[in-house]
Amino acid sequence: MIRVGIGNDFHRLVEGRPLILGGVHVEFERGCDGHSDGDALTHALTDAILGALSEGDIGVHFPDTETQWKDADSMQMLARVVWLAHERGYNIGNADATIIIERPKLREHIEAMRDNLARVMNSEKSCISVKAKTNEGLDAVGRGEAVSAQAVVLLEQITT
Ligand SMILES: [Zn+2]
User: Fold this and answer.
1) What is the gyration radius of the CA atoms in the chain, in angstroms?
2) How far is the CA of 126 from the centre of ligand 1 (A)?
């Protein structure tokens, strides 16, 4: 049995916050606003896993009303839902994600993101794809006011 899930996330970029994507601190003059560390890529992947499990969404599992998740390390949230998937009898088959951000260029950070995500998702790096693109100057992302991320994840039933 295989199950597929989709995730989407969007964060405002503001001054005075670190830019963290896929657990990598990217040097930039602005970072993601949000209750947790604002890691849009990791949030999209977390939501995709929850979606594949039909387990609601990130807001249900990590409510922003709980101080526990204020400035939280989003990789810990991802680890929690990977654990939940294992509990339900599933491993990560593969994941594919796209970050959409106008600046900075993320190319040099992609491999570190894939390393981080593969480790937390108990997966081979070759099964974790991260891509980055701009929005060609259009809308809030194109004006550099926001970052968005999209992800799909395939879960495979653990065979015993
Ligand atoms: Zn988010």
Assistant:
1) 15
2) 25
Under 8 Å between Cβ of 37 and 140: no
- How far does the centroid of ligand 1 lie from the alpha carbon of residue 38, in Å? 5
Those residues whose C-beta lies under 8 Å from the C-beta of residue 85, and which sit 6 or more positions away, are 49, 52, 53, 91, 92, 155
Quote the ligand 1 centre to 53 CA distance (angstroms).
19
Question: Residue 158 Cα, ligand 1 centroid: separation in angstroms?
Answer: 29
3-state helix, strand, coil in the chain (%, to 5): 35, 30, 35
Render pLDDT for 55-89 as a digit per residue (tens, 0 to 9). Answer: 999 988 988 777 777 767 899 999 999 999 999 99
Note the pTM of the prediction, 2 decimals.
Answer: 0.96
